[in-house]
Amino acid sequence: MRIAFASGKGGTGKTTLSVNFALYLSRSRDVLLTDFDVEEPDSHLFIQGEKVRQLKRYVEVPQVNESLCDLCGICRKVCNFHAITQLGKHLMIFPQLCHSCYACVEFCPQKALVMVPEELGALTETRQDRLRFVEARLNIGKEMAVPLIKQAAEFIEQQYPGQLVIIDAPPGTSCPVVQTIRYSDYVVLVTEPTPFGLHDLTLAVDTVRQLDRPFGVIINKDDGEENDVVRYCREEGVEILVKVPHQRSIAETYARGLSLYDKNPVFLEQMILLQEKLAEKGV
Amino acid sequence: MKIAVTAQGSDQKAMLDPRFGRTKYFVVFNDESNAYDVIDNSNVDQVAHGAGPLAVQMIADAAIDVVITGNGPGGNAARGLQTAGIQVYLCKEEKTVEEAIEAFKKGELTKF
Amino acid sequence: MKEIVVISGKGGTGKTVITSALAYAMGDRCVVADCDVDAADMHLIFKPMQQEETDFYSGEEPEMAVEHCIQCGLCVEKCRFGAIKLSEDSIEMDPFACEGCGLCARICPQGAITMKSRYVGASYVSTIRTGTVMAHARLLPGGENSGKLVAHTKKIAREQAETKGLDIILVDGSPGIGCPVISSLSGATYVLLVTEATESAFHDMKRVIELVKKFRIPVGCIINKHDLNPDLTKRVEQYLLENAIPTLGMFEYDEAVQHAVKAGKTINEYAPGRFKDRIEMITDRILNEEIK
Fold first, then answer.
1. C262 and A210 in contact by Cβ < 8 A?
2. What residues contact A163, with CB distance under 8 A and at least 6 apart?
3. Does A175 touch chain C (CB under 8 A)?
4. Phi, psi of A17 (to 5 degrees)
5. Which residues in C lie closer than 8 A to residue B18 (C-beta atoms)?
6. CB contact (8 A) between residue B80 and residue A94
7. Smallest Cβ distance to B22: which of C57, C151, C216?
8. CA-to-CA distance for A201 and A190, rounded, in angstroms?
9. Contact A5, A190 (CB under 8 A)
10. Would you call A276 an interface residue with chain C, using a CB distance cutoff of 8 Å?
11. CB under 8 Å to B34, separation ≥6 — which residues?
């Protein structure tokens, strides 16, 4: 079962909740936590434990055999991403822009192009008791999140099939998030009871519905009052799983990079409740 | 030597544009003929990704030796220009194309 | 033209709260551009009155002329993204898997596939209550923010500023460190970094500073919720000092901020006693930095 913690907006507490939930669950069962925010993964800040292994991940990008290349320019024309330029008598490839579609290789009349591996990022696996943590991180300067997310998902499926997986999704609703949601069986949307939170929740709900995945909402930093998020969920028939109260003590503990489930009883209560709610859905 | 200046307009009196890949125009000065020419980059508005390398291709095709811009090219474009052996100089002040070229000739601009 | 770009590295540090406060302080002296397209929140505070809307296209997607399809399956075989499904009587494309590479269109022996521009959202110009206009955009889910959309939004803001004879553009920049951020920064004359005293934000801030340094644009920093972790705040200040980045202001963790956001107001609008002077000081410092 793969559960993604996502949000339309950054800063709602997605990482705090996914990490703490995974840590809490790992007290009684094997859990795998993964961070798909490959550009700026930050869940590792909350995990101690030993590093098990680190694996480099690669994408395929074109390489030109200059002795075969006659500078016909077809590769440039068929590349929709402007990843190939011709400077004088040489071709210059921009791996950053390459989507590994193979069009250039396919259409080169001289067969002068081949796809070769280029380092994209790395998967780092850490173990803390019954929690396995797999972080996917893009190398600095690399921007293509989707290929790395796909490879991280493949790695997890191959190595740990049937495992309970908690995913810290990237923020927003663009391609990397779409990829993350497609990989998941259930989505927990984390929001806050503010106009920002509500607005971005509506975008996130739209996205999850388009991708046809079951989902529920966690209201973080809840102030206990009736608010627009609650109203929206009611009107839209969206289930509110849990409400985490807005407390300064929680904010402070978080600010120090410390785990909450084992230090804050109010927070722990919400973790227990979340587990119960998700158990009803087959977790 | 051919010098290309990123510009907001299509002639030497136009103001310098701080951007490289997404600049509207490159105004080109040829110091042998003392003449100005222009490369129109306005189609870049349609380009989602890869604006930098696309601009590098145009600059390279036009046999440019030096580029003058405001903030500097982004990562991809910078690498492309370096590979092509094209030098980049930064003009941080609000100047026209003509003024930027004067400043370059006097050695007042910083190399990127 | 002064272009002040506000970025944060990580989301949720209060970037939009600060940008909107600056917009309120600057009133009709500036034009606002909301380039945080994935989560365009400025309009929640400013409730813009929409004046113009333009459809926005980015990338391409294939259009299948089923009547010409001979079911050879070549497109399915060659598509690296598994985005084409062939069945007995139809051929379908999965828009969430398609990357718009165009290989299918080029390889189809019958010419049954053509690439069309992909509609991903719309950009708007709207008036806001501070007496000026805001350029903003909205993307469909799965629509990717890109350098193009950010550049487009800034271009509109610039055009508006020129028409109105204004020389300041205030940009709510994109989060992260990728292409949209680079595009947010590309015309900037000043960068304001908004961070908070948490380990996550500090970590992400360092990555953003790497990026900004390359462009050699003057930078200043605001630290939010500094009282939650005074030790960390000191470390952040130290780091900023080492990188010659002035701290323009620090704000404590304040519930008034949440209340202001809920009320749809900027913090200096909602609680001027608490925030007006500090925001004005920051605004002045930024505008004076420009002149140097």
1. no
2. A30, A31, A32, A132, A156
3. yes
4. -70, -45
5. 186-189
6. yes
7. C151
8. 8
9. yes
10. no
11. none
**B6 neighbors B104 (Cβ within 8 angstroms):** no
Single out the residue of C89, C232, C280 nearest to residue A254, CA to CA: C232
Please indicate whether, in this complex, the C-beta atoms of B22 and C179 are within 8 angstroms of each other: no
ipTM: 0.81
Which of A7, A1, A3, A2 lies closest to A177, judged by CA?
Answer: A7
Considering only CB atoms, which chain B residues are within 8 Å of A81? 49-50
Residue with tokens 């299509």: B10
Nearest to B65 by CA among B38, B92, B84: B84
Q: What is the pLDDT of residue C292?
A: 47
Q: Which residue of A has its CA nearest to B49?
A: A81
Residue C102: closest CA among C84, C85, C114? C114
C75 is written with which tokens?
């497109």
Give pLDDT, residue C286: 93
| A195 with C262: Cβ contact below 8 A | yes
The predicted model gives A83-102 an average pLDDT of: 89
Q: Which residue is it, tokens 């960068």?
A: C191
Query: CA nearest C74: which of C111, C115, C99, C101?
Result: C111
**Predicted TM-score (pTM) of this structure:** 0.77
User: Does position A71 have pLDDT exceeding 60, yes or no?
Assistant: yes
B35 and C CB contact within 8 Å? no
Cβ neighbours of B75 in A, within 8 Å: 96, 141
Model confidence at A152: pLDDT above 80: yes
C214 at interface of A, judged by CB pairs closer than 8 A: no
Q: Is C16 exposed, middle or buried (0-12, 13-18, 19+ CB in 10 A)?
A: buried
C124: β partners: C53, C136
CA-angle at C254, arms to C248 and C260, nearest 5°: 95
Q: What percent of chain C has pLDDT over 90?
A: 50
**Is any Cβ of chain A less than 8 angstroms from the Cβ of C187?**
no
CB A152 within 8 A of CB A34: yes
> How far apart, in whole angstroms, are the C-alpha atoms of residue C272 and residue C285?
19
Do the Cβ atoms of B18 and C152 come within 8 Å?
Answer: no
Nearest of A219, A207, A237 to residue A8 by alpha carbon: A207
Task: Look up residue C30 and give its DSSP letter.
Answer: -
Are C76 and C150 in contact, with CB atoms under 8 Å apart?
A: no
Average pLDDT rounded to a whole number, residues A30-47: 85
Query: Hey, is the C-beta of B80 within 8 angstroms of any chain C C-beta?
Result: no
> Is residue C188 less than 8 Å (CB to CB) from chain B?
yes
Distance, in Å, from the CA atom of C60 to the CA atom of C113, rounded to the nearest integer, reads: 12
Q: How far is Cα C261 from Cα C254, in angstroms, rounded to an integer? A: 12
Q: B60, A81: Cβ pair inside 8 Å?
A: no
Assign C119 to helix, strand or coil: strand
Mean pLDDT computed over B65-92: 89
